[in-house]
Amino acid sequence: MAMAWRQIITNTKRAASIPTQQAISTPGFSRFFSKSSPRYLVKVGIPEFLNGIGKGVEAHVAKLESEIGDFHKLLVTRTLKLKKLGIPCQQRKLILQYAHKYRVGLWRPRAEPVKAK
Prior knowledge:
- By secondary structure, the chain is mainly alpha-helical.
- Helix content is 55%, strand content 0%.
- It is elongated, with a radius of gyration of 23 Å.
């Protein structure tokens, strides 16, 4: 047991003695720590959010814009409010799941690519 602790202590001392600049300048190492530049920037409102989810949820854009109005209110809306608006169960679940992912920062709706004519 004492031998294991001794190895842990010496390994942490070695890791602490490595200069941080050397660790960062290692090729391919910095990509794990740098923030990636967002590829798709879009101003998110209720229509963009629901279109980003897809799966038939975008049919409720007009209803949610008239009743809820603000995108930030949609992010904190509960399932009972959506049920009273007449949104089916599976689509309520999708809206709530993606709202949670958006709040946490795990998902953003993509901007539609410009189509060449």
